[in-house]
Amino acid sequence: MDATGHIEDLGSFISASPSSYHAAAEVARRLGEAGYATLDEAADWREIVRPGARLVLVRDGAVIALALPADAGPATPFRILGAHTDSPTFKLKPRPALSAHGWLQAGVEVYGGPILASWFDRELEFAGRLVDRDGTVHLVRTGPFARIPHLAIHLDREVNSSFAPDKQRDIQPVFGVSGPDVLTHLARLAGLSSAHDVAGFDVMSVDSAAPTRFGADRTLFAAARLDNLSSVHAGVTALLRAGDGRAGDGPVIAVLAAFDHEELGSESRSGAAGPLLSDVLERVSAALGGQREDLVRAIFGSWLLSADAGHAIHPNRGERHDPANRPVVGGGPLLKLNANQRYTTDAVGAALWARTCDKAGVPFQEFVSNNAIPCGSTIGPISATRIGIPTLDVGTPLLSMHSARELCHVDDPAYLSAAAEVFFTGLP
Length: 428
Hints:
Blueprint lengths: L2 H13 L4 H14 L3 E2 L15 E6 L2 E6 L10 E7 L4 E12 L2 E9 L11 E10 L4 E5 L4 E2 L11 H4 L11 E3 L5 H8 L8 E10 L4 E3 L5 E4 L2 H16 L3 E3 L2 E10 L16 H12 L4 H9 L2 E5 L2 E2 L22 E3 L10 H14 L4 E3 L11 H9 L3 E5 L1 E2 L7 E4 L1 H15 L3
Helix pairs in contact: 1-10, 2-5, 5-10, 6-7, 8-10
């Protein structure tokens, strides 16, 4: 396992993926360079989806990739790694041009559940997509551009004991005292003459600092959007290494499904609660000559690995964790469990994960929440309910989840990728 090479490539992947739209495009670019053909949703898949095909589909900020073995048939089961491309952040509002007391500002609203304090006093960039009046989509990014400023301690002596930013008043970033407004600047980056040429936009903020290794032995890694680009990247790298998959003596179709809008509940056409994945699986089975009965058989024999970042034990707040299950960074990916099905892992899935990690030669550790602190959830329960596919939840242990900049151990993303490769290529 080349943890150093993997973490360097993860840093490059994160740097290329400041928004969900950029992340989906970067996945498609990498797979395209490896011979994956673009899959058009409007095309007749009976002419495209064949045994041995390598295909990638992008829908807005979501991406699905498929690796079909040479002997794939209509009832061939799927091995799916599910992840998400979005992260908690701020999104540009309509009419985002603001000014106050000589400062130029950008009007934003909260997207998901960011740790608000972590976004102050750091250089942010804006990134996402613009749609012009002809309907053409332009991916844009500003580089370091804006900053949400703290009020100085001299003007708020209680800031260290009562900081609770107002989501409307306090989070509008500044980006200058003269020059074009933010939408005009983005339009020019897209090659458009003015903001008037922009008919629509989905533009997010992201920490602009480069991913970096640090610490006494450089085993710690900090970056924006580790939740959940660490899982998306693990899926891409595993898929590129994997050959034709096998489940026992039969073939399996390896699938990477990276959805958008997980941080909002996944209820969108590009989210896990929408029809995207179920439509793809149904169309693949049909293109291989299958009927409804074949698809049901395929799903019965399939697995979905819901890969989303999880919590490592916090060094200063250990009481917030379960007293017996206390995962650490560097200890391998998490197997996430919850009695109330906020995570989907059951005994069968846990045994599958144990065999997977054993074959991959990587450690893993269980995560369960403190009973007094309800846990979050993932695409796992949504996909299991939506499709009826057996599912388990795993992920890379992090500190500072939902901060503008999160932290992991350099070994854990590589461990997850190695386990995902075994998951894709077959199990004992």
